[in-house]
Amino acid sequence: MFRLLVVPISIGILVFLFIYFIAPAIVPESDIVSYVAEFALYLSNSYFENMPPIIAGYIAYLNLAMVALTVGLLLTVVIQLVVIIGGRFIYIIKWIVSCLQKDRGKEVAQDLSPIDMDPKFMGSTPGKEILGRGIDSIDRD
Q1: Rounded to 10 degrees, what is the CA torsion of 24, 30, 35, 41?
Q2: Rounded distance, CA 13 to CA 8, Å?
Q3: By C-alpha distance, which of 65, 58, 70, 60 is closest to 24?
Q4: Can you say whether the dihedral through the CA atoms of 73, 79, 82, 87 is positive or negative?
Q5: Position 141 pLDDT exceeds 50
């Protein structure tokens, strides 16, 4: 809930405040508004034969407050979509990893066959040591 609502909304509010109060100190307000109007006009000309009335009305009444509000709201929605899509990808990756681990757990470990040892090694007393003759030595009997 925190990632889905609070973070995107706070980032959108910060962007709105930045554009509305700080950006005019760096770039003149008329330039900001004209850049946004040019971008809206470019998108309208690229994707539509005739300009839709909603875009024409947006450009006609465009001011700095509208630009800041539009950018803040669009950024909030974009960040929410990125969080949702990222969460789905993480869920899918975790699901795939869990499926792979389930398949690995189904392998049954098999016991090894018993080792055939010489009976004199098996029956030796604890105090008596056999020197020079280990399991891998050659029998010389």
Answers
A1: 140
A2: 9
A3: 65
A4: negative
A5: no
